[in-house]
Design a protein that fits this description.
By secondary structure, this protein is α/β, with parallel strands linked by helices. It contains twelve helices and eight strands. Helix 1 packs across helix 2. The chain binds ligand C2E and calcium ion (3 copies). Keywords: Membrane, Transmembrane, Transmembrane helix.
Length: 279
């Protein structure tokens, strides 16, 4: 009847408004978080053939003063919608490059690479190339130790401008890495059409590899294809020794995942680099 209809309508409106209020206050807090220093980078080691740490992926963490830690999946999408991803993304890049510059000053860490996530709307900014170039230049790092991670969704619109931006940063030495590979809708042609240096096998494939034979076949095909196209390949989400062994047999020689370490703060990462010195 009409009364219950009205009631549920009112209810829906209240729920929607609450959601809007939450999003609105999250947005306000996000603006403050940069100034207040509430964002932090964690680093997840990337492991090479001999089990050594070859680099790190920088992953943002938000220590919210009232609600505690907020995972990136809960604020990056809103940051993208509101455009706040631009200042946040620049902060991430600056902080990651500053860390990389520090590593370059020490003989034990100067070989390490740094991977940084770039979101679609950040990449789409007209001055993206310029701001990355500027941040890299000011940090003094060797650009070839910096990897920028993109997802397949960025290859769907405007192939020309995407390629131009990627080429411009590749020209100064930056390496492009294709994140979450295999989960998107783009065709395999992105692998040779865009100036990529690395692909990351998505953790969904690694997770189901040993229980789902078609996932194993796809994983093996990706590794073989990467080798043929001279692309580095790294598997993410490696959690078990069985997965590691299977990936190694398939020819994948770089790994990231909880088996080695979750993303950790810089103090803990430094201990991972030199466990004997730290204990
Ligand atoms: P991603 O780029 O695919 O990052 C990998 C995610 O997998 C990270 O989650 C990491 O903690 C998690 N992970 C690592 N090893 C394992 C494993 O063995 N098993 C499982 N199940 N998960 C593993 P996190 O840090 O919560 O980040 C989630 C997503 O948020 C990232 O996915 C990325 O898309 C986004 N993100 C994180 N930091 C940034 C950033 O600085 N900028 C942008 N634009 N996006 C970011
Ligand atoms: Ca990533
Ligand atoms: Ca990923
Ligand atoms: Ca992702």
């Amino acid at each position: 009847n009409t009364a219950t209809g009205m009631m549920s309508l009112i209810f829906i409106v209240i729920v929607m408004n609450t959601d809007l209020t939450v999003r609105r206050s999250l947005e306000i807090d996000m603006r403050k978080a940069i100034q207040d220093g509430d964002f932090q980078l964690h680093y997840q080691p990337q492991i090479g053939e001999e089990g050594q740490i070859v680099g790190a992926e920088a992953l943002i963490r938000w220590r919210h003063p009232r609600t505690g830690n907020i995972p990136p999946a809960d604020f990056i999408p809103l940051a993208e919608e509101t455009g706040l991803i631009v200042p946040i993304g620049n902060w991430v890049l600056r902080a990651a490059c500053a860390q990389l510059a520090l590593w370059e000053t020490q003989p034990e860490t100067r070989h390490l690479t740094m991977s940084v996530n770039v979101s679609a709307s950040q990449f789409r900014q007209p001055d993206f190339v310029q701001s990355v170039t500027e941040i890299v230049r000011l940090s003094g790092i060797t650009p070839s130790r910096l990897k920028l991670e993109l997802t397949e969704s960025m290859f769907v619109d405007n192939v020309e401008s995407t390629t131009a931006k990627m080429n411009a940063l590749k020209a100064i030495g930056i390496v492009w890495s294709l994140d979450d590979f295999g989960t998107g809708y783009s065709s395999l042609s992105v692998l040779h059409r865009f100036p990529l240096g690395q692909i990351k096998i998505d953790k969904a494939f690694v997770r189901d590899m040993l229980t789902n034979s078609s996932n194993m076949v796809v994983t093996e095909a990706i590794i073989a294809l990467a080798a043929n196209l001279n692309l580095q390949v790294i598997a993410e989400g490696v959690e078990t020794v069985a997965q590691l062994n299977r990936l190694r047999e398939a020819g994948c020689l770089a790994y990231q995942g909880y088996l080695f370490s979750p993303p950790v703060d810089i103090e803990a990462f430094t201990k991972l680099l030199a466990p004997e010195a730290a204990s």
